Amino acid sequence: MSHYVSRLGRRSTATPSRLRLHRRPRRVAMLSVHTSPLHQPGTGDAGGMNVYIVELAQRLAAINIEVEVFTRATTAALPPVVELSPGVLVRHVDAGPYEGLAKEDLPAQLCAFTHGVMQAWAGQRPGHYDLVHSHYWLSGHVGWLAAQRWGVPLVHAMHTMAKVKNANLADGDTPEPAARVIGETQIVAAADRLIANTAEESEELVRHYAADPAKVAVVHPGVNLGRFRPADGRAAARARLGLPQDALIPLFAGRIQPLKAPDVLLRAVAALLDERPDLRPRIVVPVVGGPSGSGLAKPEGLQKLAARLGIADVVRFHPPVGQEQLADWFRAASVLVVPSYSESFGLVAIEAQAAGTPVLAAAVGGLPVAVRDGETGVLVQGHDPAAYARVLARFADDPGMSPRMGAAAARHATSFGWDTAAGATADVYTAAMQAHRRRVRSHHG
Questions:
Q1: Residue 50 marked as a ligand binder
Q2: If you read the UniProt record, what top EC class would you report for this enzyme, in one word (predicted)?
Q3: pTM of the complete model
Q4: Is there a binding annotation on residue 343?
């Protein structure tokens, strides 16, 4: 009998085996190698995944599942362990230099990171962690080793997949390396359960990575409905942000990189103004976010594009903002524009809708789940700026379209609360623990 099962038996000899089989984990080791839950989303490699991990961990703690998040230390200023909130610890692991390490350089640091995770575990009593939940392929590799070493189940969330990204590359974007494809394939085979954001992602895991369909569970990410809500409405938000009350405001919010395609919005606005110069005095296009990924090579690229297109006067660039202020940007916008080439879920689309703002998005990845076409926003096939310009013209010509769709969007978003997501994730943990016990038993049988 494995150490894991015998420990369970020893700890709860009085518990009927039926109850013991269905228990939830008490403590989960959550791995997020390349991005810390303490980082500002919209900067560097920090984005929706950071928000996902913070919110999920806090809601799991609220249902009595303690979470310890392991992440790579990127500054000496932070202590090795930070309590994010009751029941949620963030452990900073030294692996490679603090500054200037690109995501592409991180595979070389996985050994050092794994060593740090093992050291933290060695300082605990046996059986400290009941389960490992890794996020993104880099963490999956560490999670695979840790789960094996500790005799516990591995639950993995891809967030994005190399094969899917490579099939939907933006012009001039760099394909994901073969090493990542191989790594992801190994993790899919090793995990006890895989969490997909949408049914489409679940099908992609099966199709591209030969995942066992029985191991894949679909859990929609949530949205913080307390923070992202219509609040005091569009006029007040515009006043706070110094935006004109009667303007058409198509907003881009996110990391500035080819994958997210902010250039499609700029080209669409240029096309719209070519055809409708009368709209120029009443359009403002905020771009809120910082360069990331392959966008770091040309951080001023988008500003130069705006100037080349002759729309520098209507585009306003803003560095990334905190979640509270982001909610205000959403409320102030007429429409959030998400023209991404690939998007596993599009958390930003749900956040904007929760704040009462419709979304104009590319019909890719999880966006058709996040946005109800024609009701809470508009989905566009492909990335032709002219197609986006046509939709923006409709928003300009029908002032009631934005509030009408926005009200439907806010209602739609209420079904994406984090409590629902945390409950569903806890169910996946329970199933992973059962599957793992069965596998250990059959292995030793």
A1: yes
A2: transferase
A3: 0.79
A4: yes
